[in-house]
Amino acid sequence: MYTREQTISRMNALGRAECPFFFVISHDMGHNLLFEPSETEGERMAAFSLPLGTMGNQDGGPPLPERLRFIPSPHPVSRYAASFASVRNHLMRGDSYLLNLCVSTPVETNLTLRHLFRFARAPYRMLLGPDARISGVHGRGCVCFSPEPFVTVRGRSISTFPMKGTVPSATQEARRWLETDEKENRESATIVDLMRNDLSMVATGVRVKRYRYISPVETSKGPILQCSSEISGLLPENWRSRLGEILLKLLPAGSVTGAPKEATCRAIAEAEDMERGFYTGIFGFFNGRDLDSAVSIRFMEEDERGMVYKSGGGITVMSRMEEEYQEAVAKVYVPFDF
Predict the structure, then answer these.
(1) Neighbours of 144 (CB within 10 A)
(2) How far apart are alpha carbons 273 and 83 in whole angstroms?
(3) What is the band of 42 on the pLDDT scale with cuts at 50, 70, 90?
(4) What domain of life is recorded for the organism (predicted)?
(5) Distance (Å, rounded) from C-alpha 243 to C-alpha 168?
(6) Looking at 90-99, 141-150, 215-224, 298-307, which range is the least confident one?
């Protein structure tokens, strides 16, 4: 485990040396992991799959059970209502104008973390086994099958892709709702503005290249639609030697916190009754020249009590508690067919 300061120093050194490495950074940036490719095997049970590269055994482990079981026990609506009331109070006071509220959902399943890593259809996947030296806080194992890139770097071009807006179906009617709903549009505008400002701290010529494009995401319950935007800029020529400094300056990710960041993070800590750990942090790969990273959403964790799925959604003053609760419940899925 590395602290925030150790992570920055180590990433800067590896970047300067153009040495490839994988990384996992927790939501609070205080419990972080770095892996060089030579460390892939052995008892670590860590694996990654990103467009720029993979680490660990991608095909190992047992086959899927003949009959799959995946039964969530939704977060009690009364507990969600209490958290919602807390964040709404902050929103009404003007402490925040968009806040990402997250919950944990116990899941009864015969799927293992390795099953989920191996078979989930997602462009960004991460697995950490239940080893206290490498896994989440208190030694929990976890798996992430994320559809959301955080930042990518190709050459000196840096891009970020904040995802805001989800509808639990893929019909034309659902698409039209996602395109026109005022609350969803305001969420996107807030986060795009936040991420554009964040990127401007480390890059020049920052601009919105694509605003609110809609993509399908496969789930065990059928396809859903999610809305994203693309923001890009130009990094300085020496960015690799400042890799850790640049990356952690952009954290925590705006799409899973809210705006303004500092006050919103305080409101989140007050409202949520769970520990985020690696959930809503980031993970990624630097191949010596370029970088891929993803937001750690679509996330399951395992401890001695069993499996827990962590999910959430953006809350504004226009939000209705019942609708936001249903969105958090709808996001408890795995992206492969049952």
Answers:
(1) 29
(2) 8
(3) very low
(4) Bacteria
(5) 37
(6) 215-224
Nearest to 282 by CA among 161, 168, 156: 161
- pLDDT, tens only, 101-121: 999 999 999 999 999 999 998
Q: What percent of the chain has pLDDT above 90?
A: 67
Average pLDDT, the chain: 90
Chain-centroid distance of CA 299 in Å reads 8
How far is the C-alpha of 241 from the C-alpha of 53, rounded, in Å?
A: 21
Angle formed at CA 162 by CA 156 and CA 168, multiple of 5 degrees: 145
Q: Identify whether the C-beta of residue 12 lies closer than 8 Å to the C-beta of residue 241.
A: yes
Q: Is the pLDDT of residue 131 over 70?
A: no
Q: What is the DSSP secondary structure assignment for residue 38, as one 8-state letter?
A: G
Contact 144, 125 (CB under 8 A): yes
Q: CA–CA separation, 115 vs 309, rounded Å?
A: 15
Which is nearest to 188 in space by CA: 150, 234, 226? 226
* Structure token digits, residue 70: 């995946």
pLDDT for 139 beyond 70 = no
Question: Taking Cα atoms as reference points, which of 325, 279, 334, 281 lies closest to residue 107?
Answer: 334
Look up residue 26 and give its amino acid: S
4-330, CATH topology level: Anthranilate synthase (3.60.120)
Provide the β-strand partners of residue 227. 214
268 and 99 Cβ atoms separated by less than 8 Å: yes
**195 near 208, Cβ under 8 Å?**
no
Average pLDDT of span 165-172: 78
In the numeric block, the tokens 């860590």 are attached to: 46
Q: Whole-structure pTM over 0.85, yes or no? A: yes
β partners of residue 134 = none
Q: What backbone torsions phi and psi does residue 145 show, to the nearest 5 degrees?
A: -125, 80
Token pair, residue 96, equals 């925040």
